[in-house]
Amino acid sequence: xxxxxxxxxxxxxxxxxxxxxxxxxxxxxxxxxxxxxxxxxxxxxxxxxxxxxxxxxxxxxxxxxxxxxxxxxxxxxxxxxxxxxxxxxxxxxxxxxxxxxxxxxxxxxxxxxxxxxxxxxxxxxxxxxxxxxxxxxxxxxxxxxxxxxxxxxxxxxxxxxxxxxxxxxxxxxxxxxxxxxxxxxxxxxxxxxxxxxxxxxxxxxxxxxxxxxxxxxxxxxxxxxxxxxxxxxxxxxxxxxxxx
Length: 244
What we know:
The chain is mainly alpha-helical and 244 residues long. The chain has 2 domains: 17-93, Arc Repressor Mutant, subunit A; 98-241, GntR ligand-binding domain-like (Four Helix Bundle (Hemerythrin (Met), subunit A), Up-down Bundle). The chain is built from 11 helices and 2 strands, in the order ααααββααααααα. Residues 29-96 form the HTH gntR-type domain.
């Protein structure tokens, strides 16, 4: 199924756009940003499966934009790990392999656990940040209760970012943002498209409880265990899909 065309303002004209876009992100400011977001969302949701071609001419016609804009968007998505570009062959959706999944989730564990330890040790998680964390968890719980699987993934990623953001280290948070797309894509392709989100609120609740209790070591340990367990579950699903 072809993705929805962009509207005259360069923004994706999709009635579900509010669900598709992670909470808190600003709307794109340029046509190129709109094309980047549009193609990325199609890749993440599996509209363009791993390994499928992304021809500039076809995309430009579908999105009613210039090939140069599409080319620029594809290069940006290559830098984000969603697209690979081969000379004389064109652009293709990046395949998802075990090595990449391990790298992404191992990096997440290192960055997020460091961020949480830093924030709790420094006393940054007082009433206001704790309230923000609880609100993010409530959105995850609500999405799960509604059975909105794409919203569950967005709320899951948002909760992790909200917790990490309490460390107040901009460079670390920039690195986390840079792998959010890949994280979301892997989860959607391996779990959501199979209608499985494995009781997401229950897997996060122990982390929140340890943060509320002010137990640094327990909170960091639970966060690390959660990310590593998620990694192994996703790897197992990849092996089920491709036993070779």
